[in-house]
Specification:
The chain has about 150 residues and is mainly alpha-helical. Helices cover about 75% and strands about 0% of the residues.
Length: about 150
């Protein structure tokens, strides 16, 4: 839902900035504002759902700052089997990296604003996924250290 909210916000802002003709008989300002309102609702729902999953679902909340998470990422990749990181997650990250550097896109960059939104969406997903996984790995590391201490 958070990804959808970001994409709706990008489309809403681009509609407000660059669109001058009516869309489905509505002025572009009304469509842009409606997309931004839907974006805000989607983002709020996504954040609430994620927090509920962390607290109620028993999934550990990520810890650490962005710098701590970036430093923990190599350790996570090195100890991925001990941590229990699924191979499918590594494959998803690999496919995302290949998609970002590949000249072949689902939406070509020749289309004005829409062309870069697919790359931006994949980049946002990749960074948030890496950050969340590294934060959860830091939490796991800290719980292991607490278990070793008497």
């Amino acid at each position: 839902m958070i990804f959808l909210g970001v994409m709706l916000a990008a489309i809403g802002v681009s509609t407000l900035v660059w669109r001058d003709a009516d869309l489905f008989g509505l002025p572009p300002a009304a469509v842009g504002i409606a997309l931004l309102v839907l974006s805000a609702a989607s983002l709020a729902y996504g954040v609430v759902r994620r927090r509920r999953r962390w607290t109620v679902g028993g999934e550990p909340a990520p810890v650490g700052s962005i710098v701590d998470r970036a430093k923990a990422l190599p350790r996570l990749l090195k100890r991925r089997k001990e941590y229990g990181l699924p191979g499918s997650r590594l494959a998803q990250w690999g496919f995302a990296l290949v998609y970002l550097v590949s000249p072949i896109d689902i939406l070509p960059e020749l289309l004005p604003v829409v062309g870069i939104t697919d790359d931006a969406g994949v980049a946002v997903w990749l960074l948030t996924s890496l950050s969340t996984a590294a934060g959860q790995y830091l939490n796991w590391e800290r719980s292991k250290q607490r278990q070793r201490e008497p």
